[in-house]
Amino acid sequence: MNEQSRLKELYRYHILDTKPEVELDELAEIASVICNTPMSLITMVDKERTWHKSKYGINIEEAVRKDSFCQHALHNPNEVFVVEDAQLDMKFIDNPFTKGDGAIRFYAGAPLVTPKGYVLGTICVVDTQQKKITDVQKRALQILSKKEMD
After folding, report:
1. Which sequence spans correspond to the domains of the chain?
2. What is the C-alpha separation between 50 and 88, in angstroms, rounded?
3. What distance in Å separates the CA atoms of residue 75 and residue 57, rounded to the nearest whole number?
4. Can you give the pTM of this predicted structure?
5. CA–CA separation, 109 vs 116, rounded Å?
6. Is CATH 3.30.450.40 the classification given to domain 3-149?
7. Whole-number Å distance between alpha carbons of 103 and 88
8. What is the pLDDT of residues 37-95, one digit of tens each?
């Protein structure tokens, strides 16, 4: 998918840098409850950053895109992108979010897909412990991602 067209679609939604919304914050919290994780986010992947529209259990407003786990979910709109242990995954070996206290070990993100098929970002769950995610939990994340786009 063409990145310029994807970005144009993202900007058409006028969501970047908007205020929090209770409904979306609740979807993020539901994702954490379903997946038994302490943190979750609804993110939008911009050109140079990932911006967090909603967050649960985490206080980061945005991240540099090159360090973002969510950017890896852009190319597979029908799949939940899962990292069971980021410290063992070569894509994240030098990632600052996998270092130090509170380092990310687990990530699962369901793409937020527009009717035109563009992935704007993800609804994702994060943990400082390695873990696996079940097919039922993946499906629940996909359902939440569709609800977020409604």
Report:
1. 3-149
2. 23
3. 27
4. 0.94
5. 20
6. yes
7. 13
8. 999 999 999 999 999 999 999 999 999 999 999 999 998 999 999 999 999 999 998 99
